[in-house]
Every structure is written in structure tokens, then in C-alpha cells.
Design a protein that fits this description.
Elements (H helix, E strand, L loop, with lengths): L2 H12 L6 H8 L4 E5 L6 H12 L11 E4 L3 H14 L5 E4 L5 H7 L6 E4 L1 H9 L10 E4 L2 H6 L3 H9 L6 E6 L17 E4 L13 E6 L5 H10 L4 E5 L3 H13 L4 E4 L5 H12 L5 E4 L12 E6 L6 H8 L10 E7 L12 E2 L14 E6 L9 H11 L10 E3 L4 E6 L3 H8 L12 E3 L1
Parallel strand pairs: 1-6, 1-7, 2-4, 2-5, 3-4, 5-6, 8-13, 8-14, 9-11, 9-12, 10-11, 12-13
Antiparallel strand pairs: 15-17, 15-18, 16-17
Helix pairs in contact: 2-3, 6-8
């Protein structure tokens, strides 16, 4: 694709008027062996997509999988695929990931995609079942490659790369640079490291790091006071263990704080719903493990809270990158118990003792309606919007984020309208089909 066409699509379909320095560099470089290092929230995904699409041969569109992106999590795969669809107009983009029906994915591959975005395990499953071939792949990106290695995907990625033809463009991306490249990267010549960690491709707004003293080792009461002291907005709380995350979540829920829970032991549906409710403001507080430190491109997260300090600097960097994304403002808080050891990579700008009071506290202003119909039932976002306005009686401006998955859909609506809305929608068909609208908690 031509660069001017790519940039036109970015402006028209994504509303981005100007590329940052990193994205401009990727729109101009002719390097074909790239390691791209940049902070989370700096627009790294769009940067590598620009480079891949510049190398995409439109004359070969529809003839086989030409571009492949491997990412470590389902959430990241979905986000990358969505950006590709907006920018790569006319090309078929197919995401492959676990947590939903394999047969649905296999059917979607009956028309061979131009671009595949996949998690390693699910892609290898398709390769083993011969539902897809990578022999014609020319462009490969391993996004958050260090996280894939950390999660134990080295063997899967090695086996995938053996089947990925002979790529003419290879890219690896991360927020931090590994000392050594993965062993399955066999062509190590002429590698260009493009490091934007301290350049203008990074967020330009400094993020204050605030120490919050806890008078006792158990930090739950201090956390509660901190949350009740913050102004209304989104906050992510990081814990080092799933059991701790669940304990924090239960504590906050008992105290009436609008929190959600997200960690790797939850099934994919619960994880998907947790992120959806957080993104649309239905549960503006998210308690998570380090699974939430990467791949969550959720804007307007005002606060990152370290209930536990991370064990290494890379994790500290990734966690903090959840706020102040794309130049927005944010604050990082670390709750520190008396006598707790503070790693050298952690430094504070100031200390703050919360009083548990805010003139504009965190609260849920929306709730989420769930529908048991989706793409496979021929339901679109426009169908959901029309159903909520024409049948439900809402004004279009009252409807928030709408998402449509294979067999379900969700929509954010005002909290004070939800109960009456469910009553009005009861027994009313959606696009001629029986539907069961319920509140998603």
C-alpha cells in the first residue's frame, strides 16, 4: 500500500490528525529486520501496522495470508485486528484466539484472509488441523515478544516461524529491550533497533509517582481511603498474585466501590466482560494481576495503583504505562507499608496520605446491557443502537460503547435508565429475532 493512502485512512477512520515521531519513522524506514522499542501508550501498534502495510503487495491480495502478527493475549489480538481493519481498507483481517468456538474461526478461514493476528497457541492449533497455511507469509511482527517468551510460548512461536514461508519483513516489538533475541529468530544480520523509550515517540506528559503510606501491613483500608479520595475516573489496581487480586476485589465490592476483577485464572468470557465494563465506565475500578500490565489499550485511565510493588523494573514500566497514554494525564500511586523494602527502580515525587473523601468520587455513571445475539446471528452495532432508541426509547446520545461479538453483544447505557429500559425491551424482538436483554455485572 502507498504511504499516503495509509495515512489518509488513519486520519479518516481513526481520527488521528498527526502521526508521532515513532510512527513517522516507521512510515519512512526501508529496514526489513526491525526491533521496535517504545513505551506502552506511545502508539507502537499503529507504528508497526504502518510499516507492514507499506510492504503489503496489493497485487497479491486475496491469494493467501501475506501478513502475520503474533501477540501474547486475546485482548491484544482483538485490539490489533481492529486497528488493521480501520487502516487496511479492502483487506481481509482475521483474528485467531482462544476462548471462543474453534469452528467459528475455521469457517471464517474458508475465505483466506490477507492478514492474520493471532495468539501462538490458537494459531498453532489451526496449523495442526490444516485450517490455514502460512507458506505465503511475507510480513511478520511478533508484538510484545518478551511477554510471549515470559508466558512460555517459545516452542509454539518456533514451530509457527518454521511454517511462515520466507518473510521479507520481520519486526519484534516491546516496551523493554531484551538482552538477547529469541532463539527462533534465525536471521540476526542487519537488525535495526529503533528505540523510542526516551524520544518524542513516548508520552510527553510526565507521570507523577506518589507514595501512599500504609500504617499497617494489610493495605486494604489504605487502598479504600485512596480510592475514595480520588476524583471520578478510571483506576487500575495491581496485585502480584491472583489470590490477592480476588481478596482486594471482594473487599472493595463489600464497601460498595464499583470494581471489576481481571486475571488469568478467569475464563475468557469473564475476562472479556471485565475489560468491557471497565472500558465503558460500568466498573471504573479494575483489580488485576500483571496480566493487565500489557495489551490493554484503554484510554483515560487516570490512576495506576500498586497495591504490591512489582518484582522487576520491566513490570514497573508496563504497569505505569496503563495511564497517561497518548499524552493524556495520569498519576501512579504505590501503597507502601511501614518497613517495606522499596526496589531501586522505584522513586517517588511526593507522598500523600488519603483522607477517604472526594468532592467528585469515583462512581459508575453507566451500566451495561447484554444481548444473547451477535455477528453470527447477523446483528450489527447499528441494529443494537436502533433497538435501544426505537424500542427502548433512549436518545442516541445516551448510548455508550456498543460491542458485537460472535454470539453476544453489549451496550453501555445510563445507570438511572437501566431498570426501566430492560422492562421496555422485555419480549421485544431484535431484528425479528428473540432476544434476552440482561444487565451485565
Amino acid at each position: 500500500m502507498k504511504t499516503r493512502e495509509i495515512i489518509h485512512n488513519i486520519k479518516e477512520r481513526m481520527g488521528i490528525e498527526q502521526l508521532n515521531a515513532m510512527q513517522i519513522a516507521m512510515s519512512e524506514t526501508d529496514k526489513t529486520n526491525i526491533v521496535l522499542i517504545a513505551p506502552t501508550g506511545s502508539g507502537k501498534t499503529l507504528a508497526f501496522i504502518i510499516r507492514m502495510l507499506r510492504a503489503f503487495d496489493l497485487n497479491k491480495a486475496g491469494q493467501g495470508v501475506q501478513a502475520l502478527v503474533i501477540a501474547p493475549s486475546r485482548e491484544l489480538v482483538v485490539q490489533i485486528a481492529e486497528i488493521f481493519r480501520r487502516v487496511a481498507v479492502g483487506l481481509k483481517v482475521t483474528p485467531l484466539y482462544g476462548g471462543h468456538r474453534f469452528d467459528d474461526e475455521a469457517k471464517s478461514l474458508s475465505v483466506v484472509p490477507d492478514i492474520i493476528v493471532a495468539t501462538p497457541g490458537r494459531l498453532l492449533d489451526h496449523l495442526q488441523r490444516a485450517t490455514i497455511s502460512l507458506k505465503q507469509v511475507e510480513l511478520v511482527t511478533l508484538d510484545e515478544y518478551d511477554k510471549s517468551l515470559e508466558l512460555g510460548f517459545e516452542d509454539e512461536m518456533k514451530r509457527i516461524m518454521r511454517q511462515a514461508g520466507r518473510p521479507t519483513l520481520r519486526m519484534l516489538t516491546s516496551a523493554t529491550l531484551l538482552e538477547q533475541l529469541p532463539p527462533f529468530i534465525t536471521d540476526r544480520h542487519n537488525i535495526e533497533v529503533m528505540d523510542f523509550t526516551n524520544r518524542s515517540g513516548a508520552p510527553t506528559v510526565p507521570v507523577p509517582i506518589v507514595e501512599v503510606p500504609s500504617p499497617v501491613p494489610d493495605k486494604l483500608d489504605t487502598l479504600t481511603d485512596l480510592l475514595r479520595s480520588l476524583h471520578n475516573g478510571k483506576a487500575i489496581i495491581f496485585a502480584n498474585h491472583r489470590e490477592s487480586a480476588e481478596r482486594i476485589y471482594r473487599h472493595l465490592a463489600k464497601r460498595g466501590l464499583p470494581a471489576g476483577l481481571y486475571h488469568g485464572a478467569l475464563d475468557q468470557t469473564d475476562r472479556r466482560h471485565a475489560l468491557r465494563l471497565f472500558a465503558n465506565g460500568s466498573t471504573p475500578i479494575l483489580v488485576t494481576t500483571d496480566l493487565g500490565a500489557r495489551g490493554l489499550d484503554i484510554p483515560e485511565v487516570e490512576s495506576v495503583i500498586h497495591y504490591h510493588l512489582p518484582i522487576n523494573e520491566a513490570t514497573w514500566t508496563h504497569r505505569n504505562g496503563r495511564t497517561a497514554r497518548q499524552g493524556a494525564r495520569g498519576t501512579v500511586y504505590a501503597i507502601i507499608a511501614d518497613g517495606e523494602t522499596i526496589p531501586q527502580f522505584v522513586g517517588f515525587d511526593r507522598a500523600y496520605t488519603p483522607k477517604g473523601e472526594s468532592p467528585d468520587p469515583i462512581r459508575a455513571t453507566t451500566t451495561t446491557i447484554h444481548f444473547n445475539l451477535g455477528k453470527k446471528e447477523k446483528i450489527s452495532k447499528a441494529d443494537i443502537l436502533g433497538y435501544l432508541t426505537k424500542t427502548g426509547g433512549l436518545d442516541g446520545s445516551q448510548v455508550g460503547n456498543i460491542t458485537v461479538d460472535d454470539h453476544e453483544s453489549t451496550a453501555a447505557v445510563p445507570v438511572d435508565e437501566a431498570t426501566a429500559l430492560i422492562t421496555r425491551l422485555a419480549h421485544a424482538p431484535l431484528k425479528g429475532k428473540r432476544v434476552r436483554p440482561t444487565l451485565l455485572h
